[in-house]
Amino acid sequence: MKESQETVIEMRRMILEMIHASWELTRRLGSHQLKNGCNCIACVNKRKRIIYGQVSEWKFEL
Fold this sequence. Notes:
Layout: H1 2-29, H2 41-52
């Protein structure tokens, strides 16, 4: 049970590190067009919108 929890924690840590790295890459690159192979969060989100389409309605407002 303890090994299973440690594995889950390690996997979550890896996911958070990947997200942080993609945000950091976006910050370094600045605003740019969609690039093939670019893993910054902006390009990842642009690719998702192309593949899955735009979300029709937002639940929250800023």
